[in-house]
Task: inverse folding
């Protein structure tokens, strides 16, 4: 005679298990804080630029996505992780987020709060130039600038040596129903060794820009273009990844009848993940 299946645990037992896990999570976060306190003493907060480490963050986020399982939405995990990292970074070296709200306050605020939480000060500006200028005047502040839309070539201010650079593109995890889906560039000063260079962002100024040259570049890179009527051309922000290169971009422009007036590296960022509806990540 087979034994009857064991009785399921009571609700009280399950709630006690949850309370135990909650306590462990809290204690681990406090332990993390103790380590950050020791880290501050070692570094003595004398580093130039933002305390953010884009390459380290990208690697940590990829590991998080790869090991994630279960019913908890990946968006929740991403947001919790981002807030933890941003808050502890803020504790190390206080910074503000300067946001360009020229295409809409609500979408940009959602992005800032999702990725940086409520502890980090949020400052709104009515142009990308103003947000970038505020960051340039600071030691380690960030600027958030919409990636897809621009009326002026704000990235030209990033060309000079010592100027802030593009260090990230958010959201890192992309999906159709992402709660903070607005694509934004993050601009700040960080150490060269902290940058992730999977996607390079270039400021390219061209003469002879038209629909044909735009079509020639579209298979090679993501492009933001602002007309430059003085030279019958355009100022471009070109994001290059994979097998493409700046030389391929130059060649494509020349073959399409345009000429390159200048080019300058203005930053880099990690390759993004596209997340399927079931939460699986596709690189």
Result:
């Amino acid at each position: 005679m087979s034994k009857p299946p064991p009785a399921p645990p009571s609700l009280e037992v399950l709630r006690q298990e949850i309370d135990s896990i909650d306590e462990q999570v809290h204690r681990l976060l406090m332990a993390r804080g103790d380590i950050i306190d020791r880290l501050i003493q070692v570094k003595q907060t004398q580093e130039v630029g933002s305390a953010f480490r884009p390459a380290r963050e990208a690697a940590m986020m990829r590991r998080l996505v790869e090991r994630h399982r279960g019913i908890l939405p990946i968006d929740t995990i991403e947001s919790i992780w981002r807030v933890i990292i941003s808050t502890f970074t803020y504790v190390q070296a206080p910074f503000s987020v300067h946001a360009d709200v020229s295409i809409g306050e609500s979408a940009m605020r959602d992005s800032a709060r999702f990725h940086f939480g409520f502890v980090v000060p949020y400052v709104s500006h009515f142009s990308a130039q103003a947000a970038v200028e505020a960051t340039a005047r600071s030691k380690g502040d960030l600027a958030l600038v919409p990636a897809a839309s621009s009326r002026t070539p704000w990235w030209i201010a990033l060309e000079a040596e010592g100027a802030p650079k593009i260090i990230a593109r958010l959201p890192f995890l992309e999906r159709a129903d992402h709660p903070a889906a607005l694509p934004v560039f993050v601009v700040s000063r960080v150490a060269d060794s902290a940058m992730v260079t999977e996607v390079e962002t270039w400021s390219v100024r061209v003469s002879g820009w038209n629909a044909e040259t735009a079509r020639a570049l579209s298979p090679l890179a993501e492009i933001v273009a602002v007309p430059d009527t003085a030279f019958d051309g355009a100022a471009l922000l070109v994001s290059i990844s994979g097998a493409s290169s700046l030389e391929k971009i130059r060649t494509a422009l020349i073959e399409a009848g345009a000429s390159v007036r200048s080019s300058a590296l203005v930053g880099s960022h990690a390759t993004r993940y596209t997340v399927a509806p079931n939460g699986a990540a596709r690189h």
About this structure: The mean pLDDT is 86. DSSP finds seven helices and twelve strands in the chain.
